[in-house]
C-alpha cells in the first residue's frame, strides 16, 4: 500500500488519537506503523518463518488494527492465514485445546513443556482475527479460542485465582506471566461469547495480581525480566479495566498496581537508551517497546494523568531510530531484533486507533 498521506487524510485520522497529539507526530507514527505492517504481513504468512508464534501474535493483532484503519484486505488475509495455521496445529495438540508455540511440545507429542502464557498471546491473536471475519470462519476461530480457554480454566487456574503456566517442568504454581496473559485473554474473550464464567475467572485473576508483590523472588523475577514482566502484567489491566473498574474495592487495588507499574516505566524511560539496564534491542528489553501501548490505553482510562500519552510519544520517538535510522528496514535486518518491531506495533496501533487491539465482535 502507499505510505503517502494527504493533509486531509491526516485530519480525518485525528479523532482516533489523543487531543494532545501533535499533527506531525501522528503522520510520522502512521507512516512508520504501515511500513512495519507491510513487512509483518509478509513474515506471518511465511511458513518457513521460525519466529515463536507468541512474537508473531503481537504483529497479527496490530495487523488487525491496520485492517480496521484502511480496509486493506492484505492485512486481514495475513491474519487469517496465520490464524488458520494456529488452529490446524491446535487440532493435533495434546492436551486438546493447546496451541503449538513453534517450539517445545509439537502437534501430536505427549512430552516436552507447553505454556499457557505464550499460548494466551496466540489465542488473543486468533480471537482478534475472528472479530474481523464472518460466518463459518469466525466460528472456527472463536471455537479455537474457547477450546483453549476451557483447557486452562479446567486445569491450570488455581483456587487462589492465579494461573500456572501449563505443562512447565520448573513449576506448577500460579505465576505472574501466565496469570497476566490468560487474564487478558479472558477479558478479550468475554465480550465475544457473553460467558459470565470467563469474566468471573478473569476478575479472580485480577484479584490475585492485585495482591502479588512484583518485586519478590520468583521464577523469572522483575530483577531479570524488567520491562517484559511489566508489559505482561499490565496486559491484564489494560484489557480488563472496563470490568475491573466497576467494583470500587477491586478498582482501588488495581489502580495501586497500575500506578506502581507506571512509576517503574517512568524510571526506565527517563534514562537514555544507551544507559538502560534492559536495552530495547536485546533480550527482555525488546518487549519494552510495547510499554507505550499501556500508556496510551490508560491515557484514555485515566484522563487526569495528562503525562501518559505524551511520555508514550516521547518513548516511541526514541525507539523509532533503532528501526528507521537508515530508511525502511528489511525483514532480514529486523530478524535479530524481531520482538522490538512486533511489540512496537502494539504501541503504534493503540496510538493511532485507540481500542482496536481489544475490539470485540459485539462492539
What features would you describe in this structure?
There is one protein chain. The protein is built from 15 helices and no strands. The chain is mainly α and 363 residues long. The protein has one domain: Glycosyltransferase. Helix 5 packs parallel to helix 7 and helix 10 runs parallel beside helix 12. The longest helix is centred in the first third of the chain and has 23 residues. It is globular, with a radius of gyration of 19 Å. The N terminus is likely disordered.
Keywords, please?
single chain, 363 residues, Glycosyltransferase, disordered N terminus
Spell out the blueprint of helices and strands.
Layout: H1 7-13, H2 23-45, H3 53-70, H4 73-90, H5 116-131, H6 135-155, H7 176-193, H8 196-210, H9 222-225, H10 227-244, H11 248-269, H12 291-301, H13 307-324, H14 331-334, H15 339-352
Structural class: mainly alpha
The CATH class name reads Mainly Alpha
How far apart are the termini?
Answer: 27 Å
Number of helices: 15
Low-confidence stretches: 1-21
Report the portion of residues in β strands.
under 5%
| Main beta-sheet strand count, sense and barrel state | none
Under the CATH scheme, which architecture would be assigned?
Alpha/alpha barrel
Estimate percent helicity.
55-70%
Q: How do the SSEs run, as a string of H and E?
A: HHHHHHHHHHHHHHH
Kindly report the average pLDDT value: 93
Dominant shape: globular
Q: What is the CATH fold-level name?
A: Glycosyltransferase
Amino acid at each position: 500500500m502507499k505510505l503517502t498521506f494527504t493533509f486531509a487524510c491526516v485530519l480525518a485520522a485525528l479523532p482516533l488519537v489523543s487531543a494532545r497529539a501533535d499533527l506531525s507526530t501522528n503522520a510520522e507514527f502512521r507512516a512508520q506503523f504501515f511500513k512495519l505492517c507491510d513487512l509483518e504481513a509478509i513474515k506471518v504468512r511465511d511458513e518457513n518463518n521460525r519466529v515463536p508464534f507468541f512474537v508473531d501474535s503481537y504483529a497479527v493483532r496490530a495487523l488487525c488494527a491496520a485492517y480496521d484503519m484502511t480496509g486493506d484486505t492484505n492485512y486481514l488475509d495475513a491474519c487469517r492465514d496465520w490464524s488458520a495455521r494456529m488452529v490446524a496445529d491446535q487440532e493435533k495438540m495434546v492436551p486438546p485445546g493447546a496451541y503449538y508455540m513453534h517450539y517445545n511440545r509439537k502437534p501430536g507429542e505427549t512430552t516436552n513443556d507447553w505454556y499457557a502464557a505464550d499460548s494466551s498471546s496466540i489465542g488473543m491473536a486468533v480471537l482478534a482475527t475472528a472479530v474481523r471475519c464472518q460466518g463459518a470462519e469466525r466460528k472456527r476461530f472463536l471455537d479455537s479460542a474457547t477450546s483453549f480457554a476451557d483447557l486452562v480454566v479446567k486445569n491450570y487456574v488455581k483456587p487462589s485465582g492465579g494461573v500456572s503456566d501449563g505443562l512447565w517442568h520448573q513449576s506448577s504454581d500460579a505465576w505472574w506471566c501466565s496469570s497476566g496473559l490468560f487474564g487478558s485473554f479472558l477479558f478479550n474473550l468475554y465480550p465475544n461469547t457473553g460467558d459470565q464464567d470467563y469474566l468471573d475467572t478473569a476478575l479472580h485473576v485480577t484479584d490475585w495480581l492485585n495482591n502479588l508483590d512484583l518485586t519478590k523472588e520468583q521464577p523469572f523475577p522483575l530483577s531479570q525480566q524488567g520491562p517484559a514482566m511489566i508489559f505482561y502484567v499490565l496486559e491484564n489491566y489494560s484489557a480488563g479495566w472496563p470490568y475491573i473498574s466497576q467494583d470500587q474495592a477491586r478498582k482501588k487495588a488495581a489502580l495501586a498496581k497500575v500506578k506502581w507499574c507506571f512509576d517503574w516505566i517512568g524510571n526506565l524511560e527517563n534514562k537514555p537508551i544507551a544507559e538502560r539496564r534492559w536495552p530495547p534491542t536485546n533480550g527482555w528489553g525488546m518487549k519494552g517497546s510495547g510499554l507505550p501501548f499501556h500508556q496510551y490505553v490508560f491515557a484514555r482510562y485515566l484522563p487526569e494523568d495528562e503525562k501518559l500519552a505524551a511520555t508514550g510519544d516521547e518513548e516511541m520517538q526514541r525507539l523509532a531510530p533503532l528501526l528507521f535510522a537508515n530508511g525502511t528496514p528489511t525483514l532480514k535486518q529486523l530478524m535479530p531484533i524481531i520482538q522490538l518491531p512486533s511489540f512496537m506495533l502494539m504501541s503504534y496501533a493503540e496510538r493511532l486507533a485507540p481500542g482496536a487491539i481489544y475490539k470485540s465482535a459485539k462492539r
